[in-house]
């Protein structure tokens, strides 16, 4: 009985020892490159067992035997099999857009984008498949389009280029105009935007100006007590020897006000009793200037004496709205010098 019990207790030890000994000669599942695979799921292989190797999907074999054998030492024979990723052809260019990719091998990705003003039609990305082709064809970048620009009531638009049909492409522009007496309120430029809509349409509104006022010492071409339309004009003039300074016409502007009115400037008298002046290119004795008057902005030269050099010289002065300043260097001659010794006056002697 005791001998039987001892044998029973020893049996598991004997069996365990046998299996362990056998496992010392088996091969474990081989460790292969990530791109290589083999059939079966078992973990242990007996000596002499052959395994057939193959490339994973999307890869192509390059060289080396495609079988390995489990050796008696528990090691697999070596293989030089290499599996490289399949390559897709270089992608076609994308008109009016860009494509971005790093490689063209299996599982590589292309991303497509369109230039501003174009819309992508098709897939935005393509993947290199296991069979060496791209998952989708190259998409299209189609231009954003708008209809014809909306026209303001009483207005018009002048396109920057010839338009054919009822559609316009992105970035096409034009200029709005309103005929008088209408005035454009809003942006005068129009453009087909990337959203497919035109920029905001302005309005054409009537603008009038009140009856213009007359100017001092002058007259106006129209005295009708009425409102005047945008861009209407009236004309001004001056009485007598007064000179108009500013624009001859004033215009009713788009803000409902007239443009700046001109003014009438007074003539000047020459504040000298005796002497000679240079006026309009001629030397004139002041008594012969009849009437004693020069017009606004006209230039008169009077003569001064350079006593050190004993010569005369002309100094110019200008009539400004009724005032003609006589240069400080001028000295009016005495009656005797003016009548008897006139040849010694600064205007008559040698000029400096």
TrEMBL record:
Compartmental location: Membrane; Secreted
Spans traversing the lipid bilayer: none
Disulfide bonds: 27-70, 114-141, 209-252
Molecular function terms from GO: heparin binding
Keyword Disulfide bond: yes
Signal peptide region: 1-21
Keywords: Disulfide bond, Glycoprotein, Heparin-binding, Membrane, Repeat, Secreted, Signal, Sushi
Sushi domain span: 25-85, 86-143, 144-206, 207-266
InterPro entries according to UniProt: Compl-Cell_Adhes-Reg, Sushi/SCR/CCP_sf, Sushi_2, Sushi_SCR_CCP_dom
GO cellular component: extracellular region; membrane
PANTHER family: COMPLEMENT COMPONENT-RELATED SUSHI DOMAIN-CONTAINING, MEMBRANE COFACTOR PROTEIN
Reported function: Binds to various kinds of negatively charged substances such as heparin, phospholipids, and dextran sulfate. May prevent activation of the intrinsic blood coagulation cascade by binding to phospholipids on the surface of damaged cells.
Protein name (record): Beta-2-glycoprotein 1
């Amino acid at each position: 009985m005791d001998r039987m019990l001892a044998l029973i207790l020893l049996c598991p030890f004997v069996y365990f020892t046998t299996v362990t000994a056998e496992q010392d000669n088996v091969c474990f599942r081989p460790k292969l490159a990530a791109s290589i695979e083999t059939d079966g799921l078992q973990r242990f292989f007996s000596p002499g067992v052959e395994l057939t190797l193959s490339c994973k999907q999307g890869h192509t074999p390059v060289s080396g035997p495609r079988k390995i054998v489990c050796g008696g030492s528990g090691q697999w024979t070596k293989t030089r099999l290499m599996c490289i990723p399949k390559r897709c052809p270089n992608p076609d260019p994308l008109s009016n857009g860009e494509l971005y990719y790093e490689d063209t091998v299996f599982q590589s990705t292309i991303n497509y984008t369109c230039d501003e003003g174009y819309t992508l039609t098709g897939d935005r990305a393509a993947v290199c498949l296991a069979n060496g082709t791209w998952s989708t064809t190259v998409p299209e970048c189609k231009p954003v389009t708008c209809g014809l620009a909306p026209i303001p009531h009483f207005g018009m638009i002048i396109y920057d280029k010839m338009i054919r049909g009822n559609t316009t492409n992105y970035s096409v522009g034009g200029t709005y105009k309103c005929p008088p007496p209408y005035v454009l309120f809003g942006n005068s430029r129009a453009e087909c935007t990337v959203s497919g809509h035109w920029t905001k349409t302005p309005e054409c509104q009537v603008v009038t100006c009140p009856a213009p006022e007359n100017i001092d010492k002058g007259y106006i071409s129209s005295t009708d007590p009425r409102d005047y339309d945008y861009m209407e004009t009236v004309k001004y003039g001056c009485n007598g020897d007064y000179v108009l300074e500013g624009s001859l016409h004033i215009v009713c502007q788009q803000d409902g006000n007239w443009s700046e009115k001109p003014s009438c400037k007074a003539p000047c008298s020459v504040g000298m009793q005796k002497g000679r002046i240079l006026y309009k290119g001629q030397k004139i004795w002041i008594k012969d200037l009849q009437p004693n008057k020069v017009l606004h902005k006209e230039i008169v030269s009077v003569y001064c004496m350079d006593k050190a050099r004993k010569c005369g010289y002309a100094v110019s002065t200008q009539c400004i709205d009724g005032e003609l300043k006589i240069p400080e260097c001028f000295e009016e001659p005495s009656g005797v010098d003016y009548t008897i010794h006139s040849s010694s006056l600064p205007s008559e002697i040698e000029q400096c």
